[in-house]
Amino acid sequence: MPSYQYRPFPYVTPPELQGAPSRRWPVVVVGAGPVGLAAAIDLALHGIDVLLLDDNDVVSIGSRAICWSKRTLEILDRLGCGERMAAKGVTWKVGRLYHREREIYSFDLLPESGHKMPAFINLQQYYAEEYLVDRARELEDRIELRWKNRAVGLERFSDHIRLAVETPDGLYHVEAEYLLAADGVKSAIRSMLGLDFMGRIFEERFLITDVVTPVELPNERRFWFEPPFHEGQSALLHRQPDNMYRIDLQLGWDADPETEKEPERVISRVKAVLGENTPFEVEWVSVYTFQCRRLERFVHGRVIFIGDSAHVVSPFGARGGNGGIQDTDNLAWKLAMVLSGEAPAALLETYDEERLHGADENILHSSRATNFMTPKSAIERMFRDSVLALAADLPFARRLVHSGRLSTPCSLAGMRLQTPDVGATEGSMMPGAPCADAPVIRADGRPGWLLEHLGSAFTLLHFGSDTAAPPDLRSLGNLRPELRLVHINGQADASAAGAVLADPEGLARARYGGAPGVTYLIRPDQHVAARFARYDPDAVRRALARATLKEAS
Questions:
Q1: For the chain, N or C: smaller number of CB within 10 Å?
Q2: pTM of structure
Q3: What was the pLDDT predicted at 513?
Q4: Omega into 481 within 30° of 0, i.e. cis?
């Protein structure tokens, strides 16, 4: 019996097919996978009504995306389901690399303490989708979820789009100011617009299988070059919840996908990995080909692509699902501001700029991993084997090993919404960087985390002395959008304006270079928009105008 029980979501006849007048939605999202669900939730939390359509009525079949990075968990925590995912997932931060039988080295993805979320968790995609659906249902006053609703036609106008939707009860049409295409690598919306990916398909095939076994293995990522138990160039092993393990085996380009998925062939390969006498059950099998491709642009007027509908990379490095969630994190606040009239429509072009940069970074790492894992010439193989031989003893060589560099958040340094540094500041939180977490004490004396107070709105983060009062935001005038205040002081204070937090371990000050007076402008997606050596109302106003493209207005 499968370890996860798939339960269909209820199909309901759309109101348009029951005689109700149609409405024009602010946003329609097509595709209720993790990316589409996260986008709908984020928009709802910004006060935007969303219609979410999916052509299926169950969560994804098979575990699919399993590695969720710290940054993704922080985003999902802001959306209201990060803690649930972290509690269910298998937490890990150690990776081990082998060449044949020999362990070359291990690495620690989060060697320091003082973060709410772990470096990574492994959690099957169907759990992630289930939790996101539950969260979306909690926001039913803003999100309408429609299952078995397939987008089959699209018309575009200057001020809206018109979508044709097919259901078991017939066809209807719905209008929206914006359409978000989150319908995956085989995106119907992309096909309707006549768009195609550019990039590269690599001549390699890989077998993924999930197996359930009572054998207990460490919570680690294990990767082999030229594994002794498999004739291919690489193998990967990950532990998941429910006694499930992900096994990923590289096959030759000439491998036949259907033959490789035959049960007796899969069972033989799994036995080679786990041992001839190890009991197991095969849960899910898939054969895939490496792809590193993306659309030339993600924003096409009022149609915006997110996740796999916009870009696709190889699974090594866990950059697909994590990159898609970071797409929604970048887009939702901008779209909400445009829809509410707080920012010009040109702000959406910065989603294109910033996430094209993120996609290209992911594609670069993914392509390098593929080339390193599958040498195409004798010289490339000699280089790879030499690097692996040196990496066991020489740290510099480890930087040259590419087994799928694991997903890290994209810095937006140097892009146009960020204000260059003004004055001398320390710490790594430069403009464009994703905010680091740190333990804090709330005004009611309860422990908490800094990132719980940042994000969803523009926030002024100010560091003071033990006796300094928080800045008076009235000095900024009547700002739109409004700013929230978070003040790091020596002692939490419930009577002050804004959130006044204590920094019990000094980690917030250390990570942000938080000398007295240091001030940060934080974007709604928890990226640094600007930082200043001291609080300056005029500088803050200019930085906020820059971050919302209001400089010229």
A1: N
A2: 0.94
A3: 92
A4: yes
